[in-house]
Structure formats: C-alpha cells, structure tokens
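Hey, I was hoping to borrow your eyes for a little while. I've been puzzling over a protein and I'd love to understand its fold better. The fold is given in discrete form, as structure tokens running alongside the sequence. I'd be grateful if you could look everything over and explain what you see. No rush at all, and the record is pasted right below.
>
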Amino acid sequence: MLEVSLYMNERQQMGCLLVAEQIQRPDLQAPKWNISIYDREKLAPGYWFMSPYEHIDQKSPGKGWIGPHIYDDEGELIWSGAELFGHMSAMDFKVSSFRDTKVLSMIRPEVREAVLLDDAFRIVEDVPIDGLNMHDLNFIDDGKHALVITRGVVNASEELSRVTGLENGKCEANFHGILELDTATWEPVWNWTSYDHIGFDDTSFKYGPATDRCKHEWDFLHANAVDKCPDGDILLSARHTDTIYKISKETGSIVWRLGGRKNDFDASNVNFSRQHDVRCRSQNETHTGITLMDNAKGEDPKRPTSAYSRGLHISLNTVKMTADIISHYDHPDQGYTNRRGSYQLLPNNNVFMGYYKFPFVGRPLDPPDVLSHAFTRTDDSTMMNVYVSWNGATEVATWNLYRTDATGHAEATSLIASKTRTGFETTISYDGYAKFVLIEALDKNGNLLENGRSQILTNLPAQNMLTSEVVAEELWLQQIGDGVHIWLSE
C-alpha cells in the first residue's frame, strides 16, 4: 500500500510554499500541507522527516521554511530545526541507527558535514567529510559503518576525453567516489572512485559542445545513492547515466549495470531514468530485489522514459540476467518530480515516497513556549487566550493552565483550565483574568513530562484594566503576597 507520496511541484520548488504561522513562535515558518487520509488504521506509526530547500548551492541563510522539519500524520508540525541550522539546507534528514542508538541524521552541504542529533535535538556528532556529496548518508552494519558519496573533479586523460568528441585536451569532469567510514572514528575503511571504472560513454547528460561541457566540471555521472547488499557488494545509483551499478567490494570492478546505455539485463519491462534512493532489499544466489524512485524525467532536455514519476520494486535474476517490476507506485497526480525523491519501505510493508517516515520520541530540553493575552469583551468582562507549543515534543497529550503569582509559589498556584493538545500550537481560552500564568505538559497517562513546565508568564494586558476580574486579581495578588511573606518566614 502506498501510504504517502509527497511531491513538490515546480511552484513549491521555487519557494512559493504556504507556511504555517504560529502566534507565539512567529519565527517558525514551516511548510503547510494539505492532507487526505483514506484509511487511518493502515497507516504505519511514526512521523514525517522532511527538509525543504530552495537552492541546491545555497550560500546564505534562506527563507524561514528551509531546513529540517518533523510532522505527524495530520501534517501538523512537531519540530522545526530551521533556526538551529541558520535557515540553511539540510539534506537526507531521517532517523538512522548509529551504533547502539537511534539518531537524527542529515548532511549540511554548505560545510560538507555529516550531522547527528539525539532525541533532545542536541548535536552529538558533527563530522566534516572531504568532498561529501549532499545526497546520501547511509548507515550500515547496525550503524557501525556509514556509506557516503564524494565528489572528485578530475582532468580526465586525453584518451578518456576523446570519447566526448574532444580532439585535443583533457575533459574536466566530476568522477564521484564512495567512502565507507568506521563511525567510531569516522576514518575510511574502504574507498572507491568511478574514474577507473565508468567512462564518459555511459552518460546521457549532454548539453552543448564537448568543449563547453569539459570546461566546467561536467557532471556526467551524478551519483546520488549508495547501499550495501547482503553479499557485501555495493549498489551505486547515477542519475546522469540512468544506471544502477553493482560494484565488487573486493576488486572495485563493475559487476553489472542495470539501465542506461550499457544495460547488462534483458529489461524490456523495466524502464527508468534520472532515478534516486536505490536500495538493495533482498538477495539470494539467483535473485536480487531493489527499490528506487524513478523520476523518469530530469531538468535537462532528455525525453521522459515514463508517463510520470513512480516508485519501483524490481526483481533481478542475476543468473539469467533478466529484470521484472514487482510493484510500482505512481505519482498521485500523474506528474513528474524532476529532482530528489525517495522510496521507503515501512515496517508494515507500506511505502512512503518523497521524504521519510520513522517512529520517534522527541524530548526537548527547553520548556514549552507560551504567550498569554487578556481581552476585554464588549460587556466589559475579561477573558484570556493562552497560546502554547513545545518545539520537538512528541508525547504531549494535554496542556494544563495554572494561575499563579510572580514567584510561582505552590500555595499561590491553582489549575484553571486544561486542553487537549491540538496541533503544534494549542489555544487555551479562559473566562476570567490571571496576571501570572504557567503551563504544564502532560503525557497520555496524565504525568508531567520532563522539562514540561513553562516559565511564569505575565499576561499581556487587556484593553480595559479596570474590569471587575482585573481588580479582583490585583486584590488577590496583594493578599497572596502577604501570605507568601508569612509562608517564607515559617
């Protein structure tokens, strides 16, 4: 079952997203989603992990919605990390297994770093990797190792360059590589470069004369996904050759190619191009199962290979060298996503496309954010609206609103309202007036969550501060103040 297929259209990719505005956190401008749920009982548990961006080569802080975000199944914001990372792009944002724990992982392309966060959204690893490619940070072997793609700009030899049509000179091109890293030290344990194994004659990404392409780091390969198969060999996806390569871990040689100009398989029923997120799903002596996001169309003039973008689950017979589609999940609007994308197989066998979905418990260290505002009604009575959110907290079921004094003394604190959490920001309305308030976050069992008590907040004043409720509150505070002095002296 296709659980969610999240595609950004061209308008959204250009930065014209609708954003959800929060009253008490106007700094958070997360993308807003229109959601249709057709069978709630069949949804896999978990949250969406998404990282919208505007420019591939971002040089300076961008709009408020750029960066890592977490959402629930209703499309409601759970966490925005846009400010944490300065409104800079965060690529491949997801939950990963890192040695003995689960972490949030991402790539920061502008500084070429792999970044890991814990469940309190603290950075626990911040690892610069020379030449790190933005596409894939893939933890393998129970998180003990990680696979990444690296860029490698090389002036190819005249012999290799001759394939491009250059009669003289060398072609400057990006020959991507692969690193396998030991995550205890982040030192390489295996590396591979495409320079010795993939030539220019594989590419379908050609624009203008060869003399122009070869002057500016020709991206003839554009590797964008890397994975390890059960037999230890490596799968590499290259968007600009429309090919998936199986690479021998032992020798570095190409074992086979699926797709592209040098396809080793009889794949008359399998057609894909400009693909992303290739993963090795199963393997035995005769067959290999892989999944991928078939974009089917890029941003170059090459003709589409399918009527729309889709997810593919492919079975490869590696003895007879044939390929067949096991299942496909089509773009819901029968359109194209020209860049990026994913195919995630969820634990209940649902498929999530576009971004990622994982179970996760967020435990932020900062207390909830609260804004309280008093209003004067037309009949001169007073009421309050209290706006509360807690960036990153996943376990809040109920908000309790307390009236208190400036010190928060227990004897002066009383519960005046409760409200079930309703989305990222919950509004609690109270008929009456309290000058000082605080909020507590409770879990589904009614327990106070760690760090779930807000700071004491002074109400923003009403238009009329002489109503009976306001006057009564001031008298009460004076009485409480006298009482506090007595309590303290005791």
About this structure: The radius of gyration is 28 Å. Residues 8-16, 484-490 have pLDDT under 50 and may be disordered.
